[in-house]
Amino acid sequence: DPKMAALAGGMAVRVTALVAGRSIAQKVAYGINRTVENRFRYFLKQAAPTTAVFQPALRYSSSTSKLVETTDEPDVLYKKLVLLCKGHEEAVLDSYEQFVTMAAKELQLNLEKIHRPHRVYDRITLLKSVHIHKKARVQYEIRTHFRVFHFKHLTGSTANVFLEYVQRNLPEGVAMEVKKTAVEKLPDELKPPGTQSESAPAEASQ
Amino acid sequence: MAAICTKVPPWWLQRSLLIKHSHVRLASSLSPTSDTQRGPFRGRRRREDNGNHAPSRRPLVPRSAKMAEDQDWPSVWPTAASFKPSAVPLPLRMGFPLNRGVQPDKHGNNELRKIPNFLHLTPPAVRRHCAVLRQFCTDWPVALATDAACEAHFPLEVVTTDYVHSGPSLRHPDARIVTIKVKLSQLELDDHARKKLIKLVGDRYDKETDVLTITADRCPHRKQNYDYTRYLLTVLYLESWNTEPWEAGITPADRDEFLFEGSASEQNVVSTIKAIQEAEKGVSDTTQEDVLQNANVQQY
Fold first, then answer.
1. Among all residues of chain B, which has the CA nearest to that of A66?
2. Stretch 114-133 of chain A: residues touching chain B, C-beta under 8 Å
3. A175 touches B at CB < 8 Å
4. Which of B24, B60, B229, B282 fits B180 for a cystine, CB–CB 3.0-4.6 Å?
């Protein structure tokens, strides 16, 4: 009996659906007078019975060590990492900035500075018509907004992980340039010729 | 459920339908009648065969109505996906309010579908991703905490650029460019070598910061350009230590600095002092070296 069902909270949804297309008179006949409240609520007061809140166990917890490979190869050292993001929509760049900041904080990276260069509107005026009509023109513009993230002191492994994460989640319509400043030791050959073990300088004079 | 709602027209319409179309026999959708056995549309799937889906109508109960407030959102929206109004439990509005009205709501809203959404990157989701990614990160060496320490242990800086872009090709032409920066104070150079090196590199040396910058872009691959910059650095260094035989023939006009030794000024000073001594004593018995060692001359 729909009337009885309507009283139970869990069934309210289904019954409301049944009568959704009906007129007010029909709704009265079904005994549902409070359809408005149920139809426009986004969260029901008594939610339909769902499974227990999904708490994902870290599936990798037991096998984290198996995923990580260590090698003897020395890690590259990046003194500076500069991410320049260019997009046509400022709101998208704002959200992306929030995401990058969150990710940097979680991975404990040194995000020194975020600077927002002024936007560039590239405008062009063209003739509207194929032939003559010089006074009739049409104007277009391309809007570019920028965000620059300055990171400091990252190792090669960390940089690879962070960049891959952040680049995979780059939204549509946004481009990125990553400028990496790695620090290295000088080449071994850079010693004064007298102190070098090899006798003569390699290059012929010219 | 759907059948009850959509097949039967509303009661207030049924009567008018019966009056107007009572003489029409409704063809059964399941069996082909004589009308449908021939003609270009025989064998075609009919819309009624699919159980009367009406895709333009909203589902009567949106999925968002069944969502609990404390649900696990990253499970609902795990990856980037286009906006689905029935699956997002938020009262969003987007668009221009026409006719002095309100912004259009989320149902059938093209603007909401066009713009990228970040529903898959909520803080709990990012936290979970980073918790797993942290195992692959390594720490920056503590000994290199300051710039000075970095410079002392690793004097060479290599600057490269990577590009994430969309275009007809996967490769960006500027990704091959490699720049090397080194401070000359970090290199072992004597006076002559330093001056010769600065002469050889020209504009690539910055006097204020004492930084030599070498950029290579002549090769198509980044590794080739990197090897080329290192080769250039080595060659410049070794060449600057080399002294060519013709370097001895440098004239005072070509020198960077004025050298007192062997200059006309020195000769003038010596001859002046000798002339003074001759005028006083008659004979100059001091040698040139003694003249030069005189305190006044040194100060001059």
1. B135
2. none
3. yes
4. B229
pLDDT band of residue B275 (cuts 50, 70, 90) is: confident
Q: Could you tell me if A159 and A128 are in contact, meaning their C-beta atoms sit under 8 angstroms apart? A: no
Q: Which amino acid is at B176?
A: R
Does B159 contact A91 at a Cβ distance shorter than 8 Å? Answer: no
Can you tell me the mean pLDDT for B281-287?
62
Q: Kind and range of the H or E element at A87? A: strand A77-87
| Closest residue of chain B to A47, computed from CA coordinates | B68
Task: Choose the mutation target among B63, B130, B172, B242 for the interface with A, i.e. most A CBs under 10 Å.
Answer: B130
pLDDT of residue B261: 75
| Phi, psi dihedrals of residue B173, rounded to the nearest 5° | -65, -30
Sign of CA dihedral B46, B47, B48, B50: positive
Q: How many CB pairs under 8 A join A and B?
A: 209
| Predicted TM-score of the model (pTM) | 0.70
Q: Is the pLDDT of residue B36 over 90?
A: no
**A71 reaches B (C-beta below 8 A):** no
pLDDT at B146 over 60: yes
- Out of B127, B153, B244, whose CB is closest to A205? B244
The reply to whether residue A106 touches residue B230, judged by beta carbons under 8 angstroms, is: no
Phi, psi for residue B25 in degrees, rounded to 5: -85, 125
Q: Please give chain A's pLDDT, 206 residues, in tens.
A: 554 544 444 444 444 444 444 555 555 555 444 444 445 445 444 444 444 444 444 444 444 567 788 888 889 999 999 999 999 999 999 999 999 999 999 999 999 999 999 999 999 999 999 999 999 999 999 999 999 999 999 999 999 999 999 999 999 999 999 999 999 998 888 888 776 554 444 444 43
How long a stretch of residues is chain B? 300
Which helix (H) or strand (E) covers residue B73, if one does?
A: helix B73-76
Nearest-CB residue to A92 (from B115, B128, B139): B115
Cα distance from N-terminal residue to C-terminal residue, chain B: 111
Q: Tell me if residue B127 falls in helix, strand or coil.
A: helix
Q: Do A102 and B123 touch (CB under 8 A)?
A: yes
Q: Is A5 touching B (CB cutoff 8 A)? A: no
pLDDT in tens, B183-217: 999 998 998 899 999 999 999 999 999 999 999 99
